[in-house]
Amino acid sequence: MKLNYSIFIFNLLLLQPLSSLCLSQDFDFFYFVQQWPGAYCDTKKQHCCYPKTGRPVADFGIHGLWPNYKDGTYPSDCNPDSVFDRTQISEVLSSMEKHWPSLSCPSSNGLRFWSHEWEKHGTCSESELDQKEYFEAAIKLKGKANLLNVLNNAGIEANDEMYSLESVKNAIEEGIGFTPGIECNKDSAGNSQLYQIYLCVDTSGSEFIKCPILPRPKCASTIQFPKF
């Protein structure tokens, strides 16, 4: 009896480092989410306001880099002590203004938007990326994806025309190498339109990967790519 108890305690001690290792795994992958400004601004549910720096370029803008779990759930607001610090992005501020603009009203300089993204999502990836690295990673990923160029090369342009949902997915998969998640919203006429594109990224925030799970937002089989 004493021998069995000793073996139990020994095995328990062996398992403790393994359990600690599992608990230290903060997330499994990132969703890198980009939104089309034409769809953000052309919807019956909301209005848009251009940033104080002026009208953004007609390109996909970053929405966020979101840590996720493979079961579809995600962590959020992981470190209330890690507040957004503008000085951390001073070297990439101009790139942030160009590639990560805020279109919410009232018009802003983007700081509120970036603060929200860091504090809700970025703090959950601090085991991998500090604040400076987090924002820099998102900007690098946007350039690496170059979504608008990928779609244009496939003959899919932001011209208010309708395209099959499958053709949009296939174009991105061919251009980037992985199947994206597509999110749609509706314009004032009720047309389903291309709104956001989800790509999956490894925990280092540097490489696109096959999505362990894709979001399943509702899109029509044919969607509009609105002008901006």
TrEMBL record:
Record carries keyword Membrane: no
Pfam families tied to this protein: Ribonuclease_T2
GO cellular component: extracellular region
GO biological process assignments: RNA catabolic process
Top-rank lineage group of the source organism: Eukaryota
Keywords: Disulfide bond, Endonuclease, Hydrolase, Lyase, Nuclease, Signal
Gene3D superfamilies: Ribonuclease T2-like (3.90.730.10)
SUPFAM superfamilies named in the record: Ribonuclease Rh-like
Recorded GO MF terms: hydrolase activity; ribonuclease T2 activity; RNA binding
Active site: H63, E117, H121
Signal peptide interval: 1-24
InterPro entries listed in its UniProt record: Ribonuclease_T2_eukaryotic, RNase_T2-like, RNase_T2-like_sf, RNase_T2_His_AS_1, RNase_T2_His_AS_2
Family, per entry: Belongs to the RNase T2 family.
Classification via PANTHER family: RIBONUCLEASE 3, RIBONUCLEASE T2
Protein name per UniProt: Ribonuclease 3-like
Organism: Cucumis melo
